[in-house]
Amino acid sequence: MLRRILASRILRAGFVLLAVAFMAYYLIANWDKTRQALSALSWWTIAAALVAGVLAPGPAMLAWRSLLADLGTPLSLPAGIRVMFLGQLGKYLPGGVWQVVATVELGQDHASPRKRTFTATMVGMAITLGSALALTALELPFTSSDAARRYWWVLALVPVALAGLHPRVLTGALNLVLRLARREPLERGVSLAGIGRALGWTALGWLLLSVQAWLLVAGIHGGGLRDLLPASAAYLLAWSVGFLTVFAPGGLGTRELAMAAALAPLMDWTQALVVATLCRLISTIADIAWALVALALSKQAQRENPVKVST
What we know:
By secondary structure, the chain is mainly α.
């Protein structure tokens, strides 16, 4: 029954619409506070947050590309951009699998076997989630004792997440999935060095997103550098919640509510919801911007080699 509920498109769409309607209603009902929060942000603060947010997906792509190279399929930078950022548009479809499906199919256009692209994508997701949980756990105690108590489950997940990033654990888990799907096991696993490189690129991406969140929080709250760790922890926690709620496309609704709740001890709920909504808006702009770059590179590649390259 639970599986049927999670698979229901009507319930998924209803949840997203309800969450978005709630946020819109709350912001409109408290329009004076919403307007005050928005007016507190200078144009340069919004511009700097936008730059950080748009740049952040770049390191994520480089992390995935390094994993794919470690598995035996080195892609050029333009090819990595095309596959990654066209494939990631699938995350806006309900179900949580279309991003992986699209990336795997696009990888074939560049002679990357489906199994290899699937492995790099799944390992990349595991590294992203594991690092987000670990960083959240490190930052939560410095934000407030109440936040550490409220989100104790993040601390509990850290050892599991870190253990899951070991090459043997990752390879074994993926081979189990392939065996259940009646597929051949991986010809090779990801090396420890490959995971280390991917972690480095992923950490850079989290740094850019933390700066984005901090600029918005500090611009409204006025806490300066003291707002850095609370803003970073709130964003990382909210991203993890949104990633785990696969029934919401791109974590829409759940991520914003989680971030507002995490920021509530620091600032007014309306202010926190404004920050969360702006972070979502910047994230969407970044996805569109990178997708346009990927499309432009695809058209250029088609002109240069119309037989071998497709989108």
